[in-house]
Every structure is written in structure tokens, then in C-alpha cells.
Specification:
Radius of gyration: 31 Å
Distance between the termini: 74 Å
Shape: elongated
Helix content: 25-40%
Strand content: 5-15%
Number of domains: 3
Number of strands: 23
Structural class: alpha/beta
Low-confidence stretches: 4-14, 797-801, 803-816
Number of helices: 26
CATH architecture of the largest domain: 3-Layer(aba) Sandwich
Largest sheet: 6 strands, parallel
CATH topology of the largest domain: Rossmann fold
CATH class of the largest domain: Alpha Beta
């Protein structure tokens, strides 16, 4: 790697571009940020050390992370110099998220913090409040959180800094994103994959990411891998990822300031040259983007040793270097000496405000990284231009007929969404866009790709807008960064494997929940998931591809954030998708099949049904004007079909049976309105599901979720839910439903068992239904596919199914 200390120096002193005044001011900023960072971790009063530190000045509980913070402050100061010198739009994303005190300190020094939080003023009183609030009840977290101005990266979990940074850079041609990758974070799988994001950047229309790998050597208690491998090996690794790495290494502040300033200038020059070449049409090969490797001591500028043990440059400085400063007089003296080593009297005036030379060492207005609108994406968000989804409707002459791939229909609409929004909408998928039947979007764009292409490649181009990489983590990170900076997107994924990003979803959902209560954070476009290739059509892939549990995981989050939709057909899917792309500040989960399936509702009916989120299908019911004997409920495309087939069988067996058929699109409608904004009132729920009649519910996912959502309902004890029970491997589509007892035959038997008046007249019907289950098993084992009457089943008018069984007589088993 190129050692920055050997780069040719420009005018300046000590071998670098900074003149003596610039060097002094940058070092002063750095010292001020470090002082404020230490104060946040340790103090609750006496912020300017006007008197010696006493026990009551120290917080009773010391929380936070010091080790990474001085390096982050060092980089921030130098980026400010570059922004002002070059008039840059720049964002700062830090992977070592627990360096939170540094980012809060920088925002306070820049004035942004006091503008947003007026009680944290730029004076002694405000500094005291700044210190006290940190990791304190009623205050702020220790990491870079939504409350931190300039942040889009929670930092509570490691691995996503680069993917968030690249997501922010896509379609933002004037933006430079400085992404600090911690060397602990660099050991995570998501981070290791996200180095490949540079193969998806179009320098003509995208911004740039400047990765800065911060090697300070230690995690909580262990050394980091990348800090302990030979330089040549690290250089080969980073060059293999497609970067041109420069190293800044050392611990002497003056030398490091000059080296880093020279290196940063070199990297920004290279970025500008790449973009200028590309935008002039002169770049024909994928560029090698620059990056920086910063080697600095863990806990730089902190206590060198304590009680005879190494602190600076060791794992002991990772969190709070010593935690008993309140009760240990000697340690409190070490704390005071440490804080006074930054010479606060040179940094803050008599009122506690930053001295003028510090106040001038940052950009103005929205050029400040703590005030950039790119980090408050709702400020930049514009509505999508959405074509009228109703014009893409599937004709439905009779309900329960046809054979349509619902996601393919959606793909035609998304094609035109993409065409209408060439700079603000992207689709993300882990190599599954075509598999999920969304390939029509490739009529108007390509897959994003800036690596090698060979003849026969399909729709690969640098300016493509379909983002595909076989990493759910990277797709999720890109999309989150894209949304958080004011754009829109859709993530399509196989249902079973969306679990790969469970934890990333957690962090984003929590971000949305917190920002709902932060007035200066503007709402962003919703995070939209399309989950297809779902559990009921993974018969060929087997058990490993069967898991509908992401919905369960999602509904654990705050009700204000989560929405779950299970459209039963293509027209409902179009209506739901349009709604989701228009929404703000939610996580929307849409589950829809890609295989040919029956269609039930005309577009007008679908719009009405989706608007209500739940409703009775009169054409499938026989209880009009009367109290039902049983309610057949369903949610999900395959469960809807099986519930309808069960209703058809029951209509034929028992013409006088009063069946109410209820379909659920918006799953949250099942919840109490006191628990979820979409929830039904008790009166509305009882009107649909009755107060005492049996309810047989066929559900797409794990059945216990329906019980969780309805446990407060009057009739909950009579809810009997069929869903996925972890049964099934390589088999036929219908056998998947049979193995999990969500098939038509088992549903019909369940109704018979739950309706008291059928018990004495149902023997023949039960025998016929159980015979069909036996016949099904024999047939698939012999023929390798489902019976024709299953494969070709379509809805027939109520009452024209199997021959009736009445209370007076039981007839022969019905046909068909």
C-alpha cells in the first residue's frame, strides 16, 4: 500500500499541505471534539473544569465508548477542511457506531446541535447539558442514533456502513460519502460483501464513496484481524476488492495531520478525475476507486497507562478506560489530567462557546455534515410519478377462474414506475428479479453492473437501475441508504431467505419508530418488501425453502411502523403495491405468489376490498340476511384458494349450512384498534366473525400469529387456525397444504367438527373427505403430480359442488 507519509507534499510545513495556521486550527478542533467526547462519557457538571473535579461531578454510571472516538474526530476535522476548500456536498457514515460522543461533539461545535436542540446551547450551561444527557436516563444513546444530526446510520449493529454509504451515493451525483469502516466491523459478513459495491457505481450519474478503514487494533477484548495481518496481505485484499488504498499510520498528531490532509486531497482528486472522465464519456473501464487506511492507536490521546497497565493502544480503552472515577480519588485525578491535556482554556471562551478559530473551521449552512439534507432524506423526498395501476387490471369474468402470475402483472406496472422515475426509484433483489416474475422492468432499464461483461450476458449495464447481488444484506443496506437520503425503492426476495436480514430490518424499524417522535426528522419513503416464491410453492425446493416467519418477526415491532399485506390475486396486489409506494415512514410487507393462480376480484372490487383491508365475499358465502353457522376466514393466496374450495365442498354437502367467507388483505386489521392503527374495533370485528360462532381460519404463515393478533377478541376461543406447521419437503403443491392441514379437505372436516348440528349427519361427508386425502396420497406417489381435479379446480357457483347431504338422508359420495 502507498504510505501517505511518502506522498509528495504541497506547500506547507512538516511534509504536508497544511500551513502552520491550518495545522494549529485543525488540531484545535480535534482537541475540542475529544474534550467534549470525554466530558460526555464522564461528567455531569463542572464542564469547563473551573474547579477541580469532585466525585459529585462524575456520573454515577459510566457508559460509552472512547477507543474509536478520537480517530473519528480526527477524520471529521479533516473532512471539514476539504468541504470548505472544495465546496463539497459530503456525508459522514461511521461503522463504529459507538463513537457516538464524537459525532455529537462535532454537531455541537458546528452549531447544528444547538439549532435543533435549543436547550443544548453553545455555552457553559449548554455544554453541561450536553455532557449530562449522554447515556443518561432521559437523554441520548451512546451510539450514533436518530437523535444525532447528520446521521443515517444507527451504528447499534456492525456491518452496514459501506452498504448504507453506497445506497446514499446512488443517483446523487454531487455527493461524496465518507464511510468509516471499523476494523472490528470489517470482520462481519455483511461488511466483507459490501466492499463489492464499487462494481455497481456509475460515476456518470452516481456520487462517490470514500471508504476509510480505521485500524486501531482492538475490539472489546481481542485484536482485530485486519490490524494483525501483514501490510502486503491487507494491500492485496483491498486491491482485490477494486480499491487503490493509501495508508496513514502513526501517533504523532502533527505528522498525522499533514499525512492525512495530503492523502485526503489525493483521494478527492482521484474521485473528481474519475467522475470527470466518466461524465465526458472518456471512461471505458471500471475505475479503481481510492480509499484510506488509517492506523491510529486505540483510545488515541487518552491515558497511556493506569495502575501499571497499558490503556492507550490497547483493548482497555475500547469502552470506558476506567469506570471508578467517582469513587477512586487517584483515578479522578487521572481523568482531570486527561481532560486538561486538551487545554480547554484555548478552545472555549469565558462563556463556554467555541473560540472563533474553531467556530470558523467548519462549513456553513447545509454544507455542514451535521446539517446536510442528505442525512434528513424527508427534506429531499418527492412523490413518485405512479401510473394508474387500475389500467393494468386483469379481467375477471367470474371469480375464482383464470391462471395468472400475479407478480408478473405487478412487473408490468413496476416497469412503468421505473420509466417514470429514472432518478428516484430502484429495485433491489438478491439475483431473483426474473425468478420473481418481475423481468418486464428490464424493458426500460438494465441490471446495474460495472464489472466485466461477456457475450450472452443478460441486461447488464453501468446505468442499470435493477440492483442485484447475491447478498440479502447488501441489497437491504443499499435500499436503506437510498431511502434514508430521500428516494424510493422495492426489495423483492424469496420469502424463506428474507430472514437473512432480520436484524437489519430490526434496526431500520427502530429508526423509524424513534424518528416518528423527532420533529426535525422528516418522514421518508417506506421500506417495501415483496416476498414471493413463498412457502406454499416451494414444493420442489423442499424444506429449506419453506419459512413464512418473517411476518411473525416483523409484527413484534411497534404497530405505528409495521404493515403486512397478503393480496389474494393480481388486482389486489396492484392496489396494495400502489398504496405502499405512496406511503411514508412504514415497513410494508407484501406476500404474493409468482405461480399461475386463480383470480377473484375485478379491479373495482379489489380496490374496495384492499381499502377496507378485510371483508366478506358474498359470492362465496351462504349466510346473507342470516346468522352464519360458521365463518371461513383466510389470508394469503393459497389459503384463500383452499378455503374457497372447502366452502364449495360444504355448499354441496350441506346446502342449508350458513357459511360466511371472510378474506383478509391487511393482516393488521385482525388486531384490536387499541393495539394497531389499522385494527378493527370490537364491534366491527364481531360483526364479521360473530361473538360465538366457530371460525375456521386458513392462514399463509404460522397459525399462532393469528391467535396473537386476535387474543383480545370476544370470540377468540372459537378461532381455529390452520397454517404452516413446519411440515413438508419435496412434494407437490397441494401436498404441501395437506401435510400442514390447510387443504380444502381438512378445512371442510374442521368445519364439520366445529358446527354442532352437523355431527349427526356428517358421517358420509367425513368419509368422502378422508377418502379423498387417501386418494391424493396414492395419486401423487404414482404420478408425481396433483390430481387433475386439484390442479384444474376453479370456483363454481355456491351450492353446485358435491351432491348434498341433508338431515333426512345421506347420499352417495359426490363426484369431482
Amino acid at each position: 500500500m502507498t504510505d501517505a507519509t511518502t506522498l509528495p507534499s504541497e506547500t506547507g510545513t512538516r511534509g504536508g499541505p497544511l500551513d502552520p495556521d491550518e495545522l494549529r486550527r485543525i488540531d484545535a478542533w480535534w482537541r475540542a471534539a475529544n474534550y467534549l467526547s470525554v466530558g460526555q462519557i464522564y461528567l455531569m457538571s463542572n464542564p469547563l473544569l473551573r474547579v477541580p473535579i469532585e466525585a459529585e461531578h462524575v456520573k454515577p454510571r459510566l457508559l460509552g465508548h472512547w477507543g474509536t472516538t478520537p480517530g473519528l474526530n480526527f477524520v471529521y476535522a479533516h473532512l471539514n477542511r476539504a468541504i470548505m476548500a472544495r465546496d463539497l456536498h459530503m456525508m459522514y457514515i461511521i461503522g463504529p457506531g459507538h463513537g457516538g460522543p464524537g459525532l455529537v461533539a462535532s454537531a455541537w461545535l458546528e452549531g447544528t446541535y444547538s439549532e435543533i436542540y435549543s436547550h443544548i446551547s453553545q455555552d457553559e450551561e449548554g455544554m453541561e447539558r450536553l455532557f449530562t444527557q449522554f447515556s443518561f436516563p432521559g437523554g441520548i444513546p451512546s451510539h450514533v442514533a436518530p437523535e444525532t444530526p447528520g446521521s443515517i446510520h444507527e451504528g447499534g449493529e456492525l456491518g452496514y456502513s459501506l452498504s448504507h454509504a453506497y445506497g446514499a451515493a446512488f443517483d446523487n451525483p454531487d455527493l461524496v460519502v465518507a464511510a468509516i469502516v471499523g476494523d472490528g466491523e470489517a470482520e462481519t459478513g455483511p461488511l466483507a460483501t459490501s466492499w463489492h459495491s464499487n462494481k455497481f457505481v456509475d460515476p456518470r450519474r452516481d456520487g462517490a464513496v470514500l471508504p476509510i478503514l480505521h485500524l486501531n487494533g482492538y475490539k472489546i477484548a481481542n485484536p482485530t484481524v485486519l490490524a494483525r495481518i501483514p501490510d502486503a496481505e491487507l494491500d492485496a485484499l483491498l486491491r482485490g476488492y477494486g480499491h487503490n488504498p493509501y495508508v496513514v499510520s502513526g501517533d504523532d498528531p502533527a505528522t498525522m495531520h499533514q499525512a492525512f490532509a495530503a492523502t485526503l486531497d489525493r483521494c478527492l482528486d482521484e474521485i473528481r478525475a474519475i467522475q470527470e472522465q466518466a461524465r465526458a464519456g472518456e471512461l471505458t473501464e471500471r475505475p479503481r476507486w481510492p480509499m484510506i487506511v488509517l492506523r491510529s492507536p486505540k483510545g488515541w490521546t487518552g491515558p497511556d497507562t493506569l495502575d501499571g497497565k497499558q490503556v492507550e493502544g490497547s483493548w482497555r480503552s475500547h469502552q470506558v478506560p476506567f469506570a471508578d472515577a467517582r469513587t477512586n480519588d487517584a483515578h479522578r485525578t487521572v481523568l482531570e489530567d486527561w481532560m486538561r491535556s486538551y487545554r480547554p482554556e484555548e478552545l472555549f471562551d469565558s462563556t463556554g462557546a467555541p473560540v472563533p478559530e474553531i467556530a470558523r473551521l467548519h462549513p456553513k449552512g447545509d454544507r455542514r455534515m451535521s446539517a446536510t439534507p442528505y442525512a434528513n432524506g424527508g427534506l429531499l423526498l418527492r412523490d413518485l410519478r405512479l401510473p394508474d395501476f387500475a389500467s393494468y387490471a386483469v379481467p375477471v369474468d367470474e371469480p375464482g377462474t383464470g391462471a395468472v402470475e400475479s407478480t408478473r402483472v405487478l412487473g408490468t406496472w413496476l416497469r412503468d414506475v421505473m420509466a417514470h422515475n429514472p432518478d428516484t426509484f430502484r429495485m433491489f433483489s438478491p439475483d431473483e428479479n426474473n425468478s420473481n416474475r418481475l423481468q418486464d422492468v428490464l424493458d426500460v432499464t438494465n441490471r446495474t453492473w460495472d464489472a466485466e461483461t461477456v457475450p450472452g450476458d443478460d441486461h447488464l449495464a453501468r446505468d442499470g437501475r435493477v440492483m442485484e447481488i447475491l447478498s440479502e444484506h447488501t441489497c437491504e443496506g443499499w435500499l436503506e441508504g437510498y431511502l434514508l437520503t430521500g428516494r424510493h425503492g422495492l426489495f423483492s426476495c424469496y420469502e424463506a431467505f428474507i430472514h437473512v436480514i432480520d436484524s437489519m430490518f430490526n434496526q431500520h424499524a427502530k429508526w423509524l419508530k424513534v424518528t416518528d417522535d423527532i420533529p426535525w426528522r422528516r418522514p421518508i419513503a417506506s421500506l417495501n418488501y415483496l416476498l414471493t416464491s413463498h412457502v406454499w410453492r416451494q414444493d420442489h425446493n423442499g424444506f429449506s425453502h419453506q419459512d413464512p416467519g418473517f411476518i411473525d418477526h416483523a409484527v413484534n415491532k411497534k404497530a405505528d411502523v409495521i404493515r403486512v399485506y397478503l393480496p389474494p390475486d393480481a388486482n389486489c396486489l396492484l392496489s396494495v403495491a400502489d398504496h405502499c409506494l405512496r406511503s411514508r415512514q412504514y415497513v410494508n410487507i407484501i406476500v404474493a405468489g409468482k405461480q399461475p393462480a386463480l383470480q377473484y376480484l375485478s379491479m373495482d372490487e379489489a380496490i374496495a376490498h384492499c381499502t377496507k383491508g378485510i371483508g366478506i365475499w358474498p359470492w362465496a358465502s351462504t349466510d346473507a340476511g342470516a346468522e352464519p353457522d360458521v365463518v371461513l376466514g383466510c389470508a394469503g393466496d393459497v389459503p384463500t384458494m383452499e378455503a374457497l374450495a372447502a366452502a364449495d365442498l360444504l355448499h354441496g354437502f350441506f346446502p342449508d349450512l350458513k357459511v360466511r367467507f371472510v378474506n383478509v388483505v391487511d393482516l393488521m386489521r385482525l388486531q384490536d384498534d387499541r393495539e394497531h392503527p389499522h385494527g378493527l374495533s370490537a364491534a366491527d370485528f364481531d360483526a364479521l366473525f360473530t361473538r360465538e360462532k366457530p371460525v375456521i381460519f386458513a392462514y399463509h404463515g404460522y397459525p399462532w400469529l393469528i391467535h396473537r393478533l386476535t387474543y383480545r377478541r370476544t370470540n377468540h376461543d372459537n378461532f381455529h387456525v390452520r397454517g404452516y406447521k413446519e411440515e413438508g419437503t419435496t412434494t407437490t403443491p397441494f401436498d404441501m397444504t395437506v401435510l400442514n392441514q390447510v387443504d380444502r379437505y381438512n378445512l371442510a372436516i374442521d368445519v364439520i367438527d366445529r358446527v354442532p348440528r352437523l355431527r349427526d349427519v356428517s358421517a358420509h361427508a367425513r368419509e368422502w373427505l378422508r377418502g379423498k386425502l387417501i386418494e391424493h396420497q396414492r395419486y401423487i406417489r404414482e404420478h408425481g403430480e396433483d390430481m387433475p381435479e386439484i390442479k384444474d379446480w376453479q370456483w363454481r357457483s355456491a351450492g353446485t359442488g358435491p351432491v348434498a347431504v341433508t338431515e333426512d338422508a345421506a347420499t352417495e359420495a359426490p363426484e369431482g
